[in-house]
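Friendly challenge for the regulars: who can give me the structure tokens for this chain first? No prize, just bragging rights.
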Amino acid sequence: MTTSVPADTHPLGTAGRYASRRVPTAGPDDTVGHVLEGLRSGDVDSAAVVAILEGERLLGLVTIERLLRSPDDTRAGAIMDTAPPVVAPTAVQEQAAWRAVQHGEPTLAVVDDGRFVGLVPATALLGVLLAEHDEDLVRLGGFLKSASPAQTTTV
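First reply, four minutes later:
Bragging rights claimed.
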């Protein structure tokens, strides 16, 4: 496990702002048993997905569900999603969140010039989608700046 990417290194409104390196990682030849043992002892921001890395390069993702269904001697590389949703750190947050949703993944990988930056956890993706939804409703309702006047108005 490595430390988190400082949030202030990426502009507001971008996927990189939400990417964390405090996620479970493994190599393609690591066994499921080894990966699960690492999950039990790790301090991570999210454990929904394990990033399979070769050096700093993302090879794929393995969901916790897939890990739990697999025999302990299975190699992580054999059960990973080799085409997970991936975005650049500069990707617009709303488009990035939709990419994860459309792909059916609980997280989103952020990669910069082939280098793994981190994963955006499901809670952050949900927060982005809810904030964007509120913003769209505010615009449709004719309110300015934020939804707070609409949310506090009583009938």
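Confidence is low (pLDDT under 50) at residues 1-8. Strands lie at 25-26, 49-54, 57-63, 86-87, 108-112, 115-120. Your move, everyone else.
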